[in-house]
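A reminder from the course coordinator: this example appears on the midterm review sheet, so study it carefully.

Given structure:
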């Protein structure tokens, strides 16, 4: 018998698939489509991570099964190749980012091919390819034209040493990721995208998609829908008012002061009335240097300053109450001002305690606690005519009573879309002294990145592009006068916000994708990826999709029908794999030593798909042995025989189990099933060719190379991937037999074979007729029988 030479066999089939374009997909209206998607990787210098392999294998199994079920499957691949690590590497080594990207994608491609994923390689895309980013820029222009892209002064993180704006993820514990200098805040004009205009739909339409519940919750939390009241508090001796947002208007009789955020316009407006302007201004200046997380986190000591010289009127009871400025109130949520109810809000309670502000109970609670606020519901007290009514019921009435308005608010904020970086899509606009901001005409897209020698940002914090005079200085497309290009580039999120659309029509030079192709291939039927992308990436791409839907350029409201997620693969011992710890497993080494099929099923067998699992080299050997056993069976058994009845039944059960398990992503249990079947087969050593072929078909999505080779050795000429997915023959399952253990008073007396699924009454009769058993009943009474279906029957006698 030939030994299982995985290197030779795997290379052979990978070549075969490539040459025969086995997994190429074309628009074919006669065939039902299925679109399966993984998050296209960022081609980092480290190469493929075993975590990529987990997601890719899962979707590969699903894709291969769907093909066998008769679907026209689109399972595409590409590169999300703009981004910081490449740029930083370019700076460090003076290698152009496109050279680094080419090297890395070549490596990733080789690695992915060596694992046998059934991608349609003819549809490979790359976000850094001008033919691709032309359309990323084009979508931006449409957003700009619809008023959804605008410029705004924003506070950014600034490293004073590197003289560079930092993204939030580049700030580690308040310091620059690269040089560890403490980060400062700076104001800078940034391009913004008005995603908040879509907040309501992004929230509501989650009802119509099949995402894992935890993913829906993440989306909903990020969007942060909140219903409540906007209520005006009049300023004493002034026509001005402060508008607050509250989710608890029922507590308004207990509002003993009002708090505005440091950025609130109110302070500027009433400057003249302030008795302590200096003190207030100083506080405001300091607050602006902290970020939101610092300002609002629970348990952090709250600070604030009273605005002296000003009082407001509580509209519920006419009381005069003070106004404070405090940084735990955020300017961009609600109205940037709150009514403080220390008796029923913990933050207000802490704040009132610290500054000696009055606390007034307005919701009755049975438990008396004095060291915290009662935040629950209950009957109103000290609330005038509303006394005695339940707080839940009274919210809208009280809002009306004080002249407020019932509103819906969202936590979601607009998307900061500018980066002062080189390695991203240039924002396709120019600035003209005469005409202002002018979009680049669509016919002139793409605005290509110019070649530069240095990738460092400029001294002013502008992107390196600002230094390329030849590129920056252009004619205004509108008036022909002198103009300058926008030098900000887009964030890495841009290219990945629409890539799944491009896969439907990758070579189109007239549109980002033809509507006909989109109507056929989209929406994505099943999208799997990491939990780290189920908030922002998912939200951003849903936003772009809805925008394109409104322009009637895509046929569906939502991009992804179904979204699932996998757990992480951790290093041996449960730590995160990282280069610095030296515990990263290189998939190349596993493929070389044990083979791609071993790596595939090992990763699927490690544990439940949605959970984190630790790498264990030892278990790989066990999986490899399983493959060798199947190999031996395929090469040495005589298949000119009939399959024994119970093995036949087990095979049908295995088909059923694996078919269902793939759908629920229970890959580990489907692999257990295969192993159980092989154990049984090795006992019987007899199986018909037809039945062994069925087995090969159902394992082929998991171990495609092994399955192709054995399928071929059995004399089949076509790829097993074009075979039909086996149907379960239920009749055979029912007809199968089982061995039942018979006990009397808990002692095993015999085992015997009978039909599967036999009911208790019939089984009892049968067993009583067996003399080895019935002799134990002589002169005794059967008090009770315990029956575990298809396994055991126990008679309790006395
Ligand atoms: C009075 C009140 C009494 C409140 C009470 C709560 C409990 P969510 O659910 O997150 O929407 N708030 C409003 N705007 C704020 C801002 N810009 N920064 C910080 N806090 C703000 O929370 C809404 C509640 O958070 C509002 O209801 C307000 O406090 C506070 F017993 O108003 B509440
Ligand atoms: Zn002009």
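Designed residues:
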């Amino acid at each position: 018998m030939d030994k299982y030479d995985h290197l030779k066999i795997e290379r052979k089939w990978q070549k075969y698939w490539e040459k025969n374009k086995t997994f190429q997909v074309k628009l074919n209206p006669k065939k039902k489509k299925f679109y399966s998607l993984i998050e296209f990787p960022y081609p980092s210098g480290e190469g493929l991570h075993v975590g990529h392999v987990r997601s890719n294998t899962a979707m590969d199994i699903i894709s291969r099964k769907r093909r066998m079920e008769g679907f026209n499957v689109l399972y595409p691949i590409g590169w999300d190749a703009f981004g910081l690590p490449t740029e930083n590497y370019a700076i460090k080594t003076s290698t152009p980012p496109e050279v680094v990207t080419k090297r890395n994608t070549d490596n990733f491609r080789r690695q992915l091919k060596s694992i046998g994923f059934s991608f349609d390689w003819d549809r490979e895309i790359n976000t850094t390819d001008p033919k691709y980013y032309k359309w990323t820029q084009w979508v931006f222009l449409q957003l700009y034209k619809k008023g959804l892209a605008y410029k705004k002064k924003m506070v950014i993180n600034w490293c004073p040493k590197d003289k560079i704006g930092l993204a939030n993820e580049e700030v580690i514990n308040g310091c620059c990721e690269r040089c560890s200098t403490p980060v400062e805040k700076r104001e800078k004009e940034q391009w913004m995208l008005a995603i908040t205009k879509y907040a309501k739909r992004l929230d509501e339409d989650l009802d119509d998609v099949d995402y894992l519940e935890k993913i829906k919750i993440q989306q909903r939390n990020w969007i942060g829908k909140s219903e409540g009241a906007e209520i005006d508090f009049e300023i004493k001796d002034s026509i001005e008012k402060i508008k607050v947002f509250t989710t608890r208007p029922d507590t308004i009789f207990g509002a003993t002061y009002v708090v505005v955020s440091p950025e609130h316009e109110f302070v500027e407006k009433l400057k003249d009335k302030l008795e302590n302007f200096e003190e207030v201004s100083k506080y405001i200046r300091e607050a602006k240097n902290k970020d939101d997380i610092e300002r609002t986190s629970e348990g952090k000591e709250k600070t604030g300053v009273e605005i002296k010289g000003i009082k407001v009127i509580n509209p519920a009871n006419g009381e005069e109450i003070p106004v404070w400025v405090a940084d735990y109130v955020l300017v961009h949520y609600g109205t940037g001002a709150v009514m403080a109810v220390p008796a029923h809000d913990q933050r207000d309670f802490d704040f009132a305690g610290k500054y000696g502000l009055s606390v007034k109970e307005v919701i009755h609670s049975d438990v008396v606690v004095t060291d915290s606020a009662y935040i629950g519901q209950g009957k109103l007290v000290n609330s005038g005519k509303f006394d005695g009514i339940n707080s839940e019921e009274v919210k809208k009435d009280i809002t009306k009573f004080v002249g407020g308005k019932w509103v819906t608010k969202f936590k979601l904020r607009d998307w900061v879309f500018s980066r002062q970086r080189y390695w991203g899509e240039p924002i396709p606009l120019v600035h003209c002294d005469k005409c202002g901001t002018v979009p680049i005409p669509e016919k002139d897209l793409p605005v290509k990145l110019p070649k530069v020698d240095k990738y460092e940002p400029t001294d002013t914090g502008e992107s390196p592009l600002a230094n390329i005079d030849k590129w920056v200085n252009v004619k205004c497309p509108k008036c022909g006068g002198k103009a300058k290009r926008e030098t900000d580039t887009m964030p890495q999120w841009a290219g990945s916000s629409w890539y799944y659309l491009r896969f439907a029509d990758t070579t189109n030079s007239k549109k980002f994708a033809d509507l006909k192709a989109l109507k056929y291939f989209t929406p994505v039927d099943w999208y799997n990826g990491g939990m780290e992308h189920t908030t922002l990436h998912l939200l951003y791409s849903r936003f772009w999709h809805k925008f394109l839907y409104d322009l009637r350029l895509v046929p569906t409201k939502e991009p992804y029908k179904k979204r699932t997620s996998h757990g992480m693969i951790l290093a041996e011992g449960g730590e995160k794999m990282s280069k610095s710890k030296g515990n990263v497993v290189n998939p190349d080494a596993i493929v070389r030593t044990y083979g791609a099929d071993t790596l595939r099923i090992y990763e699927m067998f490690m544990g439940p798909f949605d959970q984190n699992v630790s790498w264990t080299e030892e278990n790989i050997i066990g999986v490899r042995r399983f493959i060798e056993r199947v190999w031996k069976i395929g090469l040495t058994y005589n298949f000119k025989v009939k399959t024994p009845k119970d093995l036949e039944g087990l095979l049908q059960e295995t088909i059923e189990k694996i078919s269902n398990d793939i759908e629920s992503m229970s890959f580990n249990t489907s692999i257990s099933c295969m192993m159980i079947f092989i154990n049984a087969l090795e006992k019987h050593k007899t199986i018909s060719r037809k039945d062994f072929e069925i087995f090969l078909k159902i394992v082929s999505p998991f171990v495609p190379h092994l399955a192709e080779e054995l399928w071929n050795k059995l004399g089949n000429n076509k790829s097993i991937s074009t075979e039909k997915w086996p149907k379960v023959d239920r009749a055979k399952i029912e007809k199968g037999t089982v061995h039942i253990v018979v006990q009397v008073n808990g002692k095993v007396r015999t085992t015997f074979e009978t039909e599967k699924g036999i009911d208790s009454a019939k089984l009892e009769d049968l067993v009583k007729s067996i003399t080895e058993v019935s002799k134990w009943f002589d002169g005794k009474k059967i008090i009770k029988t315990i029956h575990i279906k298809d396994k055991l029957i126990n008679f309790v006698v006395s």
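The two ends are 59 Å apart (CA to CA). The chain has a mean pLDDT of 93.
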